[in-house]
Amino acid sequence: QVQLVESGGGLVQAGGSLRLSCTASGAVFSPNTMGWYRQAPGKQRELVAEVSSGGTTNYADSEKARITISRDNAKNTVYLQMNSLIHEDTAIYYCNYYYINRYIGKQEYWGQGTQVNVSS
To answer: Which residue positions in the chain have pLDDT lower than 50?
Structure first.
């Protein structure tokens, strides 16, 4: 099992910045991918960004200009720096971790979520 603990959410004014952190613990295997998804009220959960343990990043097209994902492999921690926040960024942000087990396939875990509220 892998546990994901998120931090950094909160209330911010439009135009402001936030940095989310997520640390994985437990049976963490490499290589792996860690990332962030978000779910706004009434909408489906969607990818924001993800980064592999090798450093390959993948961003949602709509977020590339304002968001940077990074990670510290030694700490099993992924960061999401969000700038120029807009009201539409309001959502619950979920940390995601997965790795590919050669025998049983993709093993995926989710954090509890951290609320981000952007006031307009």
So the answer is: none
